[in-house]
Queue: 4 jobs
Job 1
Amino acid sequence: MPSQSSHEFVITSSVRTEVIRRVSAEPTPTDALLSEIAASDSAVYNALSTLSNRGLVRQRDSGWRLTAYGSLVADSISAWKAAAAFRERDPAFWNNHHVDVIPAAFRRRLPEIGEYEIIRDTAQDPNRSEEVAISVLDSATSCELTTPYYSRRHQEAIPTTPETRVLVTRGVIDVSVQRYKNGHRSELNPLEPANIRLTDCQFASVVTDNELKFELPTVSGGTTGQHRNTGTTGSPSNESVTDTTALCISETEPAVQWGRDLFATLWEDSDPLEPYIRRTFPALVE
């Protein structure tokens, strides 16, 4: 049995990788590969031989082409390269935040987002990420929002049009109700109850017609309670989105579509709000 997977076997050689890339586009004769690949003839011949032995390429009258298995390996290499390029736009953000809170199918699709910017708090502007997040809400006529923490400023900025939908954790509802009971909120819910559902997701996101914004839990967050200078409250955790001081924002069409698809999936798996309110806070509905 080979000691390496076929994926590893290809990407550990620039010549093998280039052969796979070129023959994945179209059948390519040996002479064309020898002349177009920047390597010695013996290196190209060796790559073709070993790739053929692995069942990744096959020679036909029209030239070398991928096998069905080779196509699968080529696709995985393309996905790996896209993910690497996506991460390299800001390695520090991805190193310091948990991406595993996003469902696996959407983690794999992250490179679709394309161009993005990481907005960070600084010593000179300690609330920069929050201000940008609020501006996204302020400029929107509607949005799809997911959040695991309560923030008065965010709540006040959410568009209240019928198209707006919100996913929150039960902890957010508990805090929101308590603040209402304590007189810190004039009304419990400015949105229709049907536009709010319950989720277990531990990341924050906003999708508008033009933008995607999301925040992820920090890798080394301390116990939560209070987000820096924001008045947001989360559940006790060693790794929480309420500890983050950075957010990812993108204005590309693929990013908006990614966010819409993600929200639709989460919405489908969420729970209605009213049964939870009736069960947990019966005095509010008497």
Note: The first strand starts at residue 57 and ends at 60.
Job 2
Amino acid sequence: MVHENMPAMDSTSEMNTHGGDERARPVRITKRRAISGSSWAFFGFGGEQAIRFVRSLFLTRLLAPDFYGLIGLSGIVVGLIARFSDIGLNISIIRDKRGDDQRFLDTAWTLSVLRGVIIWLVACAIAWPASRIYEEPLLLYVIPIIGLSAVIRGLTSTKIATRNRKLILGRLTVLRILAQALGLSTTVAWAMYDPENIGVLVVGTLVSSLFIMVTSFVSLSGRGNRLCWDKEAAHELIRFGKWIVVSTAITFFLAQGDQAIVGVIQTTEAFAVYSVAYFLARAIPKVLLNMGPKVLLPVYAQMDEKNLKQVRRRTFKMRAALLGVFLPIMWAMVLFGRYLVWWLYPESYHNAGWMFELLTAGNVGLVIGLTAGGVVLARGDSFRFMILQTARAITMLTGMGVGYMIGKNTGAPDGGIMGFIIGMGASYWLNYPLLVWAIRKHGTWLPGLDGVAFAGSAVVVYIRFWVMQ
């Protein structure tokens, strides 16, 4: 490793490479390692988001809005397919006691390879219906090509997951940033050379996926993966993952379902404007979604659930720190986000300003929930997590539908999309009781902390939309 905080873990102690069924002793997540992992996760996500931000600035200037919108539409379709086949292999490696057993890892990798091929085949099958639904003929070709990235990712070594398990994130972070930078440079170069060529829509995704797959084998220490089928390991992976399939598909809908629906009810040009607002508003939630499997899940998994007082104390410290950092940033976005959009993007995207502020106001409820919900999966309660995500999706879908109809009936030019956004944001706030139901069983509900977070956010929303208008 170039820089890892625990260099001894790079040798034979990092991974049980020859032990067969031998169970490696689980690594204890110390406070130092948790802080180091959090720091690397912040740095990595910040770097990746900065690259995506630069990509957005370049492409909104180099491409026509309808062509830029196609990039988002194709990614949504393939992402949805991927989530329906996700059985939580990385989560299983992180939380399972056999997470360092090579036969367990090879079995997980074999399932990952199969999953990648299935995703690509389904992408090919769904390309034509998607092109008709969105009325974009190019999707017929773009979706199968982007779907190949799922095959590439399926081949990626489980050495990435084992490092996540132990919060050894230094080199992983560097590799991910390099992959994003490589994808950005190839996409921008192609867009400058031929901005109307289909290659602009696919080249960056394929190049970055290929880079991560190759470097996961050649740049990380430990034995590579090979095809293997351990019946006990496969049973455990599938048993845990059977509810994850539904949960992750619903999680994807919670994260990007609004984009999928907006792509249908709006033109591709209007969708491109919404996608800019979506990208900016989801920055903070994506930090927490990114930290979940890398930092929060391993930390929660190491907590001694028998010592409830310790669990609550550590949970409070972790959540208070996260909310103390992120909520003030989101409040500033709610109050002044439109000016940021007007300054950064061409005039054709300026409508994204008020969308950005409304989306961020709703996402406050989402962020509060994301800091708390990780304990459910860390305890292996995938069924309860599935119920939680399903109820959230129903609430969100109801909110979007009711808000859209009310807004459309006002007759205002943007009434439908405005009501849509308000309804979705309201659902994030209103589903808090569902979160309480899910986490109370594990003793990590902190009503005082959450009450302060919601109250402060409500004041900011009131100031922006009733006082400032």
Note: Residues 303-469 form one domain.
Job 3
Amino acid sequence: MKKNKDSRITGRYASFKEYAVLLFILAGFNGFHMWIYQSMYQSEILHENVRTVINILGLYVLVMAAIATAIIGLLRYRFFIDPMRKLSEAAREIAKGDFSVRIPSLRSDGKKSFVDVLYDDFNTMAEELASIETLKNDFIANVSHEIKTPLSVIQTYTIALQNSNISEEERKENIQVILEATQKLSSLVTNILKLSKLENQEISGEAKYYDLSEQLRRCALMFADQMEQKNIQFDEDIDDIQVCYDENLLEIVWNNLLSNAVKFTAPGGSIFIKLKVDVKNTQDFVIISISDTGCGMDEITQKRIFDKFFQGDTSHSIPGNGLGLPLVKKTLDLSGGTITVESTPGQGSTFHVILQTNNT
């Protein structure tokens, strides 16, 4: 690591003056004793040989004081000033945006002093910042791509509408494409705002008891028209259950899971919702299962479905922006619930949401 002088540093941890003062104190202490011995010398109390020994001892103490001062200075530099300088330089690089900076441990024997632990914490912080920076860049890249696509469609078809020679049927088709693109753009922005709000929310909203079974039926009813258009059979096995959660937050979960079920289920397929209570260790848990007979997912896709902007449909033939399931996961994390998935390619998927009956 380069030893660049920081212009903000206008003083030293320890200057020559401090060491001179330390040496002066030690020398003064020695001089005080020598004065006493000199007084005794003048009064002829001490023997000649004793006087010689005292003089040599005084010189010895003075030399040792100088050596002790130098050793203290070296130790101070080795174990405090130099480690803090390295930490300061590394922090300055982090502030400039270089998150690859790491500080090696001071010791090679595997043991750790408090400075080594401080270095470890600094390196961990740098790794986390690098990870966050990568996620931020990926997020911006994905958002830019997802926004650019519908905007490009809107621009292209709007230009086509300006052509006075197109037929009325083509004009209607172009308007329909533009409408779908604006709906996709609106959905993307709405989901980004929701996800941003949830990620900056430390606690869930106001939790109160409400009828979960009624909420599930109401959410399913919102997709009745879409299921009817695709001739999807809908069945339910829902018990009447009260839970204590933020009703608005959980509605995000059911709407996104049902939306995905309808989206990925082929015409003539089926969707099934099950709501049951499961008792584990005297604690009542609610298990909500939403199943479909859609395209299903392989194991690799199942591991990534909760990542932002990830879409299992790489062809993008099915509308979506890859934010629905991350919203579901973040909402459940915030609410204290969990979600798992079972899926087989070509046979459909089942999402299991587990909640506590009493979340107070």
Note: Residues 51 and 283 are 90 Å apart (CA to CA).
Job 4
Amino acid sequence: MAWPIRRLAGPLAVIAAVVGWTIAAPRGAQLTRAPLVLEPLGATGEAIYPALEGWGPAKNGDNLILLGYYNRNKTQELDIPIGPDNRIDPGGPDHGQPTHFYAGRQHGIFAIKVPKDFGTQKLTWTLTANGQTSSISFWLNPPYWVNFYKHPANGNEPPIIKLLRDGPTMTGPPAGIAQTLSGTVGKPVTLTLWASDMPTQVNEGEEALAVRNRVSAAARGNQDAVAIIGTQVIGGARGAATTPAAPPDITVNWRQHRGPDDVTFAQSRIPLVTKRDPTLYLEATTTATFTAPGEYVIRAQINDTSGDGGGGEQCCWTTALVKVEVR
């Protein structure tokens, strides 16, 4: 299937993705003008636009609709509870969308699972921020079909992660809560995951031979295939401890998705350096501290070198949602 053209920058990408959005003022208030596509952003007081990233089949065959948002505020983060101001209908208002909204463009942060026979049915996400309401309707629109697990042009695949050292692997969009943790107000909760990534292309010759040799060495137990990056201990040969000099080929980003109050991450961005070795699962560890009791959802977004939003092509990154029950 042809790959849709998605290399659109900033607001253009969102406007293209969110066909059918509208913006209006609350009842009884003066109508708010929708900003122009290239209109400068504001520090505060701006709208938030829901964004359709695309849809495609999950590993189990279910269809996933992947969504993000565009917060036109440069500095203002907002909390919008599930309800009249943050709803997805029909069947809502809660379809797993965020309630904490960071500034700027946030790509592919949650997915809605729909049945194979969903057909032309539509869902609508409505957000009210700073008195401005925007909404989009989305469906299984053929031009927005995406292969979440492999880029058809260059063969790139999203990182593979595990939330337990010997646990199951995950890749691609989030499909519900992947892990549940517990914590106490004011005390750091440890967040750990293991990540690996296949190189986009492996050429025949010396590089392919080197990969095969590393696979054989790992199988014989001669290589330590774990690095603890969040605490700056990085493994190569067993016992080695160095600081990575090469650019990261995987980046783990922790963000708040939902919760009654603020979350502080000791290290919200963790770079990992695999040197294109698909046999390595690198351990990334940080902590999250919660300021109030309640139920939180935090998000781990794991990017490869294609970056946020896959460089505008919606492949390839992996997202996991973690619930934390804080007392």
Note: Confidence is low (pLDDT under 50) at residues 1-32, 202-244.
